[in-house]
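seq as requested:
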Amino acid sequence: MKLLSPAISRFARMRLWSIEQWVNDPITTQHVVWQDLLAAGQYTEFGRLHNFSQIQSLADYKKNVPIQDAVVTRTAKGGYMAQGHDGKGNKLTALLGEAKALAAIKAGTAKQGW
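struct tokens:
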């Protein structure tokens, strides 16, 4: 029992440090998670169709994975969400700020869904 307690304490301290890093730097955390998702997704059919292995930036992602027939709706918490597909049968969803949502509707690249 004495051996187990220090091991659990060490694990708890490491886990707490990891959570504090996420809280203190959420942008970097989101970028790391996004890169992990792209790395894992590059071996899927969807990832190969959209060149996930070549994506290095958000601009690359937007270029390689366009949303077609997008409909912008308001979320329950006041945000905006665009839903559509990629033209190959895959459904896509993106969260948007108000300015981008209204700009997409005005430009005709998305329909207003409210």
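The first strand starts at residue 68 and ends at 74.
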